[in-house]
Amino acid sequence: MIARRKTRKVQVAAVSIGGDSPISVQGMTKTRTEDTKATVRQIEELAEVGCEIVRVAVPTRVAARALKKIKAQISLPLVADIHYSPTLALMAIEAGVDKIRINPGNIRKPEAQKKIVLAAKKHKIPIRIGVNSGSVLPRKGLKVMRPAEEQNLAVLMVELVLKAAHFFESLDFGDIVISLKASDPIVTIRAYRLAAMKCDYPFHLGVTATGPAEESMAKSAIGIGTLLAEGIGDTIRVSTTGPPQLEIKTAYDILAALGIRRHSPEIISCPVCGRCEVDLPKIVGEVKEALAHEKRPLKIAVMGCVVNGPGEAAEADLGIACTKDYGFIFKKGEILRRVSENALMNEFLQELRELE
Amino acid sequence: MIARRKTRKVQVAAVSIGGDSPISVQGMTKTRTEDTKATVRQIEELAEVGCEIVRVAVPTRVAARALKKIKAQISLPLVADIHYSPTLALMAIEAGVDKIRINPGNIRKPEAQKKIVLAAKKHKIPIRIGVNSGSVLPRKGLKVMRPAEEQNLAVLMVELVLKAAHFFESLDFGDIVISLKASDPIVTIRAYRLAAMKCDYPFHLGVTATGPAEESMAKSAIGIGTLLAEGIGDTIRVSTTGPPQLEIKTAYDILAALGIRRHSPEIISCPVCGRCEVDLPKIVGEVKEALAHEKRPLKIAVMGCVVNGPGEAAEADLGIACTKDYGFIFKKGEILRRVSENALMNEFLQELRELE
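ok -> structure tokens follow
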């Protein structure tokens, strides 16, 4: 529904990024990459919850050597995350990864970048040029950023990323994905908006170093969500100091909130107020449980009263509006019938099964 | 830092909305308003976590009669939420509430609206004209909204709200706050953006009927956060089918993510990857615990490696970057010293206490 920014398409094994490709969900392992077994297990867990491209950190030669073994045991496209060391980048490419990410903030030398680009070209894999705000921030730090400084930071990030991209293009290499992550969502939004005006590379969206799981959700949702709502962004990764599965789940929550992609049914439910005469969280819990294995991208409404119920539920494929002792079942905007409280869940499930 | 839309200032007891007032955080009770004791207790709980204006549903005469008793026992400004019944609105105003919210979608008759406006004027309290997408959606429902329909829905919502506002102004009443909540964050964003061009009333932001707690956070963060980042919004309420305290917490997370207001310190922490050689979630947990009663709006960084650590931590008032067996303590962008793992938390706390 949202008109997307036009971008070139880049192939990461079987998954494409950019162009008309669906906006993909990426994850990153939190195991030690050197521990092949734990890493493969976590990648399988991530695939199960919907991760479509997985990245692993490659901080050591042992980790780089583990990539081949990891790659052989997984089905997801594998991305190597490289900082500082061109040698590790070359080892990762030789090991057969499907994409590498380098940070031009810490692999700055053109000669080093050139070696990596030529190797990626030979192996026909794309490179993500991933700049973080940390790479361009003056080491002495910014205490409080004023708008001009936020703007400057975004400009510096975009300059750093495009300088590398132009150099890569001069080597006849264009399989480039770009990221511009800051820990401040406003800086992040500014950087991507600016870059969107200057190139057609697909964008990997994310807000970096967001913080503890709960608090960080708002940062990621605002940063990633605002851009997606403007049609900017081709692949996303939510990052948080929490389980990697939660990152995938939140990524889908963001895509679902904008109606872009659903990985499971959407439940619309009201916040419960003094008008509510039933235990709505309990009913929502039952409905969630009933939908646990439902893969159809349905819109299901569970409303606690008749004030907002019928109106909001009208958008839903199936809905319940509950009042004391009974409820109404709605289907695609039409009231089907009034049902007693005891029979409500069963009748709802019956309707759910029959839904086309 | 964000340039705010210019709005008129409206007074809700001691709390002002609009103009140069801080963006306030509102909550709504989920108890039965008729149950005075439970409602007062919940309002106290909400005040404790930072709620600044509290709303209660008034669906019955018994609820309307409870308002006076509730009001007498609380310190927060009290808002009565009214649907359908002008009588209940008048009773609530007489009971001494500090603001009422009516929905012109279900109190449509000018004669009924006029009585309410005159009563509010007499008692010198403001009115929120709160339109929900449900109030303007055709009862037969929209299955899938295309951009034109989203736009139409937003336009209909704005027309409904402004029609009421203009009528109120014709009665020489201008203490108006506006809300335009849809369950779709994109419709919500469109409606507020459109209204922002057409009036100077302060806006109460929210996304309605967002769904179960976890999933709904993304909707609220995107809807409310995108608008706040554009300078639109004067007071906010997050709504979710979950505990009302969580709504307040999430509201502050959104304000904090944008650097608008903080209710507690901000923790920046990295998502943990294969480079991390310490149990970062554990350290973050310890830091969170140490900060539990900290009210200063500090920015604290807890980073798991030296790759992103020093750069990102440079923004922080105080930071730790951990590597195997030891860590670095940063203060406002400068490395203070390297500390052994065992002493790290103690030295961090010492620095925290000494922070100005």
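Residues 265 and 291 of chain A are 7 Å apart (CA to CA).
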